[in-house]
């Protein structure tokens, strides 16, 4: 019997470029237990064509933690030029931080919400992607600090109040279907509709 995969539900938003920024993003991506690269290079597993994005900008890295029988994840910054904000913490080149169940990530104007649902497989995980027509993050560097005004802002971020639980409803939208991967949203954006079940039993 196959073991269920860990599922990363990844929501994406860009305030100015909109869905065009994510034209190459698949509805679902299954990956082995090696780092998943995000960038504009041909070797990136998740390719985004964005201004100022590095060929290898960041990676989602699964690993085994002592005393834990399931995969856990960290996010590592790989860009020498830009920085990545993760849950209010700024990462520079080769810095990394463990991910929580729900994580807010900001880079090159991209707002990314990563929700981790644990599985028992240690060999692979699956990412399910969704394009959000609404902002996901407000002032990303202020998520966990009151000193955001003193931090130099190379990329003027969009705002920073904590999202309410209602903003997470799109991760489990009942309107998601297998047959229509791309559909216009009611708010004027484009959503990638996620499949309900992967071949390995992961719900998406």
TrEMBL record:
Entries under Gene3D superfamilies matching the protein: 2.60.200.20
Superkingdom classification of source: Eukaryota
Residue span, FHA domain: 37-101
Comp. bias regions, Polar residues: 173-183
GO biological process, one term: positive regulation of canonical NF-kappaB signal transduction
Listed Pfam families: FHA (PF00498)
Cited InterPro entries: FHA_dom, SMAD_FHA_dom_sf, TIFA
Location of region: Disordered: 142-204
Name under which the protein is recorded: TRAF-interacting protein with FHA domain-containing protein B
Gene label: TIFAB
């Amino acid at each position: 019997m196959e073991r269920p995969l860990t599922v990363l539900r990844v929501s994406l938003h860009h305030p100015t470029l909109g869905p065009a920024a994510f034209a190459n993003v698949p509805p679902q991506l299954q990956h082995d237990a090696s780092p998943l690269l995000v960038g504009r290079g041909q070797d990136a597993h998740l390719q985004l064509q964005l201004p100022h994005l590095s060929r290898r900008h960041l990676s989602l890295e699964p690993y085994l933690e002592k005393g834990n029988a399931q995969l856990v994840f960290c996010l590592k910054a790989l860009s020498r030029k830009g920085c990545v904000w993760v849950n209010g913490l700024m990462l520079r080149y080769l810095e990394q931080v463990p991910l929580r169940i729900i994580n807010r990530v900001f880079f090159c104007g991209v707002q990314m919400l990563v929700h981790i649902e644990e599985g028992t497989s240690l060999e692979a995980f699956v990412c399910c992607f969704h394009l959000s027509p609404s902002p996901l993050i407000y002032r990303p560097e202020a998520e966990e600090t009151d000193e955001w005004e003193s931090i130099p802002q190379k990329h003027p971020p969009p705002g920073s109040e904590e999202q309410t639980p209602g903003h997470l409803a799109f991760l489990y939208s009942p309107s998601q279907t297998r047959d229509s991967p791309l559909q216009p949203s009611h708010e004027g954006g484009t959503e990638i509709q996620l499949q309900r079940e992967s071949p390995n039993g992961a719900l998406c």
